[in-house]
Amino acid sequence: MSDAIRVSTRVAVDPDAAFRLFTDEVDEWWRRGPRFRWNPQRDGVVRFEGGEGGRFVEVYDEASEDAFEVGRIEVWDPPKRLVFTFRARAFAPGESTEVEVRFEPAGPAGETTDVTVEHRGWDALREDHPARHALDASAFSDMMGVWWADLLTSARQRAAAQKQG
Description:
With 165 residues, this protein is α+β, with helices and mostly antiparallel strands. It has a single domain, classed as Alpha-D-Glucose-1,6-Bisphosphate, Chain A, domain 4, CATH 3.30.530. Helices cover 25% and strands 33% of the residues. It contains three helices and seven strands. The protein has helices at residues 15-24, 26-29, 137-164, and strands at 5-11, 45-48, 55-61, 66-77, 81-86, 97-106, 112-120. The chain has a seven-stranded antiparallel sheet with strand order 1-7-6-5-4-3-2, with helices on one face. A hairpin with a 4-residue loop joins strand 3 and strand 4. The longest helix is centred in the last third of the chain and has 28 residues, at 137-164. It is globular and about 45 Å long. The N and C termini lie far apart (43 Å).
């Protein structure tokens, strides 16, 4: 199995707008519910606390700073690239994977953007890790590909709605 899961979509905005949508508006397009959020019993807000070294978090209570830290931002290079560590609910302290998101101009005059997510580092987790849901390598890759495709479809729909006004 390849360690990386790659999913791409084309959004109807330029790379700068695509980067801002992905980072500044993440809570608007990141799907809700136990399949996509980190604490199924609580309704949190997902956000990037921008810049290298910043956090990717799901916040449950702003006043108390109650949050689940999904990961840390390793590369913040608008409008080209974003890299962050990523933890699922079932990860033990110190376990993480890595997500790289690339924003590449597409179409005439770069008015659309190809957004590619590469989620890697799964080989560092043992085969019977709970995050793998008892799936073999191929089925797990397929499941994660569909998971990211669902999220990117939501981002693409958000971009299209914004463009229409």
